[in-house]
Specification:
This protein is an alpha+beta fold. It is built from eleven helices and five strands; from the N terminus they run ααααααααβββααββα. Strands 2-1-3-5-4 form a five-stranded antiparallel β-sheet. The chain is elongated and about 50 Å long.
């Protein structure tokens, strides 16, 4: 499975915003972005001032890739698939990313980060309609029921995340989370308004349309 090898906090600093790649750590004083909210390198001030239209488009693409933990080749395949589907390409792209199995597990409240969810899936702890699925990029559909193995549910990090999700009710409306059974059901495909990441997807469409 392909993965990012860069320091995660460095990615947030490069994009100029918190991407919440480390889950709970990102909301504590240990967060590197809170201490150094500027891009890496000696000349970060000069770099901030010099950004072209192409630069804006590129940064938007990089931001989305890093939030969802997707590498370039796969991201381009997603874009091509989004372009083939009816409707707006940018919105389709976000919907495809949002319905990845690792993202759904995170958004359901099982984990505090997509990175943690991706590890659980890759290690064989994810279940869709009772069957094991170990592909983080698997695209869930309406009617699917998502759960984790008993071993994963007994992890302290997972139990804590589920407890926090129950208290704060942060699960999106297109996912129905049964906290008693610790099972999530996909009610319908996410609408654009359900996707809360700060992104201007049209800039990505413009970038790939050149």
């Amino acid at each position: 499975m392909a993965r990012h090898t860069e320091a995660l906090c460095r990615l947030c600093r490069r994009e100029g915003m918190k991407l919440f790649l480390k889950g709970d750590r990102c909301v504590t004083e240990k967060c590197a972005f809170s201490r150094r909210p500027y891009i890496p390198g000696m000349h970060h001030e000069a770099q901030r001032k010099k950004i072209s239209e192409y630069g804006r488009q590129l940064r938007e693409k990089q931001k989305v890739k890093r939030i969802y933990g997707v590498l370039e080749r796969q991201f381009r395949r997603y874009f091509e698939e989004a372009n083939r589907r009816p409707g707006g390409t940018g919105e389709n792209l976000l919907k495809i990313l949002e319905t990845r199995l690792d993202n759904v597990i995170h958004r359901s409240g099982f984990t505090t980060s997509r990175r943690e969810a991706r590890k659980l899936v890759a290690h064989g702890h994810a279940r869709i309609n009772g069957k094991k699925v170990d592909i983080p990029s698997y695209e869930v559909k309406a009617g699917d029921k998502i759960s984790l193995s008993e071993k994963a549910l007994n992890l302290e990090s997972v139990k804590k995340s589920i407890s926090e999700a129950f208290k704060k009710r942060t699960v999106p409306t297109w996912i129905e989370m049964n906290f008693e059974k610790r099972e999530a059901a996909i009610k319908n495909a996410p609408a654009r308004t359900d996707i809360t990441i700060p992104v201007q997807e049209q800039l990505i469409v413009e970038l790939y349309s050149k």
